[in-house]
# Entry
Amino acid sequence: MKMFFEVQFAALFLAASLAQGAAVEHIGIIKTLAGEVVVDRAGQSIKAEPNLKLYLADVVKTGADGKAGLILEDDTVISMGFNSSLALKSFLFQPNEKKLSFIARLYHGTASFLSGQIAKLAPSLVHIETPHATVGVRGTHVLIQVD
# Structure
């Protein structure tokens, strides 16, 4: 239920930004995929394909035979295993203005994170949330499984 409200809030935020004419820039891409992979965006479910652009508040989901490789604009690499669901909750990469943030939420499944520039410049601003804990990324590589 909490996931539903988080996704609805993110969809409303995205819709409000679009309605105000704000330029919404992508924050990464799905570089590779196999099997069933979808992206939930603003109430729509989009079948993923290589090089599909990812935006703030997207939720990437893999099916029973699915896996996906994501690359974010700061060079963060995320590998998702089967039956996984990952929300891109916060991403801000403006190093010249010292505006940096990355927060992802792994609802279930398995994901591997290889940190990018945000973690190198401001490690305290990189977090991976799970239903029961928040992981602060201080190193370069972390593997998380949520049942």
Notes: The CA atoms of residues 26 and 145 lie 26 Å apart. The longest helix spans residues 2-19. Confidence is low (pLDDT under 50) at residues 9-22.
